[in-house]
Inverse folding.
């Protein structure tokens, strides 16, 4: 059974445990072929710093369904929210980020739509990495990754144990979600941050750089594969905190 959101809350006195400035609410949005557990290392570090964190469990049945799940997570937060997304999740937060409680967006090796773009159009802007050759499409139209793609494209810089776990827990994406458009992307009106994964085997690093520049995001580059929150969680967490402290 798919659950709309999985919440990771701090104890009641958690806010008193942190001396850092800035907002305290962070909503994390995973991408295709993943689930909320992809953020587990980042979640524990953010919680230790006094942040209130929710990791959305996107059903990946449609962009609209994923946006709705993210909005429900945003609604659970008391106060302004920093919305963070990985990969396809960039499409989700570009739409859900229009929620008035959202005050900033962080994109991590993510897709960023322009006005009226869908995910397929975003990817078509530059040559692909070739990961699509390892897509496995079910008769119902849901796409998953082969073990080869997990090892070579998705998380080549993760441990063997982590790669097997990610393969086992991946959530297939409805292929039709790639055709759903974002009409008014939130980055047009809200400050943005971006992590470019320079060794990304799923989304072209050049496409990430192009989009980061387009949206005038505060940007860093990490020498990592597609999922830096698994392979370099300390740096990802630090970047999220830096964004939060600016808001």
């Amino acid at each position: 059974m798919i659950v709309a959101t999985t919440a990771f809350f701090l104890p009641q006195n958690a806010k008193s445990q942190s001396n850092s400035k800035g907002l305290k609410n962070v909503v994390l949005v995973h991408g295709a072929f993943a689930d909320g557990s992809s953020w587990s290392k980042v979640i524990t570090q953010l919680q230790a710093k006094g942040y209130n964190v929710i990791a959305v469990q996107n059903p990946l049945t449609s962009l609209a369904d994923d946006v709705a799940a993210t909005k429900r997570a945003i609604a659970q937060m008391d106060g302004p929210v920093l919305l963070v997304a990985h990969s396809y999740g960039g499409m989700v937060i570009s739409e859900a980020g229009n929620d008035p409680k959202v005050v900033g967006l962080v994109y991590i090796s993510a897709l960023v739509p322009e006005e009226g773009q869908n995910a397929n159009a975003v990817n078509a802007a530059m040559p692909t990495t070739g990961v699509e050759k390892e897509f496995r499409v079910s008769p119902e139209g849901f796409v998953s990754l082969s073990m080869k793609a997990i090892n070579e494209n998705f998380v080549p810089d993760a441990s063997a144990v982590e790669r097997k776990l990610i393969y086992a827990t991946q959530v297939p994406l409805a292929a039709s979600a790639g055709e759903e458009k974002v009409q008014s992307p939130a980055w047009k009106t809200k400050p943005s941050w971006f992590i470019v994964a320079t060794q990304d085997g799923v989304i072209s690093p050049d496409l990430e750089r192009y989009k980061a520049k387009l949206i005038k995001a505060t940007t860093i580059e990490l020498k990592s594969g597609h999922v830096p929150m698994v392979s370099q969680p300390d740096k990802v967490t630090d970047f999220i905190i830096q964004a939060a402290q600016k808001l």
Summary: Confidence is low (pLDDT under 50) at residues 1-20. The first strand starts at residue 5 and ends at 8. The two ends are 36 Å apart (CA to CA).
